[in-house]
TrEMBL record:
Superkingdom: Bacteria
Keyword line: Transferase
Protein's UniProt name: Glycosyltransferase
Gene Ontology MF annotations: transferase activity
Gene3D superfamilies: Spore Coat Polysaccharide Biosynthesis Protein SpsA, Chain A
SUPFAM superfamilies, per the entry: Nucleotide-diphospho-sugar transferases
UniProt source species: Salipiger mucosus DSM 16094
Amino acid sequence: MADFHQNGNIAQFHNLRSRPLEEMVYELETFAQSRRISLVLPSLYSELEGEALPNILAELRKVTYLHRVIIGLDRADAEQYRHARAFFAELPQQTTVIWNDSPRMQQIMERLEALGLAPQEAGKGKNVWGCMGYLISCADSAVMAIHDCDILTYKREMLDRLVYPVANPTFPYQLSKGFYPRVGQNRLNGRVTRLLVSPLLIALKRTIGDRDYIDYLRAFRYPLSGEFAMRTGLLPDLRIPSDWGLEIGVLSEAWRNLGPRQVCQVEIADQYDHKHQELSPEDASQGLSRMSTDICKAIYRKLAADGTVFTPHVFRTLKATYYRSALDLLEAYWADAKMNGLAIDRHAEERSIEIFGENIVRAGQMFVENPQETPFIPTWNRVHSADPTLLTDFRAAVAADEREFG
């Protein structure tokens, strides 16, 4: 059973196992009659061939309150897009597969490029941004949820609990973030959160002093979770990072636009497992090494925007402080895993800490050398201002792809 602790920064909703799930579902069905709920699934085509997605669809077939499901499909050719449409057709909700690599979608991207508004790199950030734009163009949903397509332990309850705080009209929350223990295959997982983000935030507080933003991020039990829900009024002005800093970027946007009293986190699972990225120690442009660099830059950018001054000396001190903090936390993680009968490789964990420490400085150097870098994809409000017909044409391109390859 979960605890009932509130950290005083953001609201935390625990699973105290005191209420039948059917009651929550009935309420969600009631809310959905006047506040439609849609789900976004950013997906690589390769995930259709994995073991997680078939079970996710089997669980989603049971969800009665969902109005619309939007799948952003990356890295697919025409035949794979056709297969994806058949694959997702079993869902009972209104279902749209956006073929991001189609010639029509490339034409949309060329129009954005001509305006200087195109996403600068492919990836989850661009995928999610496009799905948000499509949902804005539909203009029929009050709540949007997002989760990944590689969750091996997926249960429909994850979605039920994730959307409830923002779907309930009597609650003040605009954004809901999922949290859970990262445990799978008898191992303690979640390396980037445990070994980078948590000790980095501790080190930042010791190095640059108290900052409300740092306390805000530290309040999240799993800030890198890919599961969140929000009220759709936020979407037009939401700045989505195009790199691996998506999850931190969304939380930072919530901090900028909402403040902590309209943000909550909710326990959505007892266990959670999905595919694992390689550490990629030999190539800083790949895997968890690239991810750690992008996450650090996302945090530095937000702190700098709030007035923090960073210099190379600060980053060197930050690395040393981080390293000590990470080793101290590793001792606690090791004991926690041992107490619960879970495996943990201390050598591999310390190697990860060393690489993350190097990337803290690397990200700092990149930030100092290029402070004008703008990795954010333009907001849909800006796109609409520059080209008022683009969203309509975007939706028409998706429909034309469906007709041609139906």
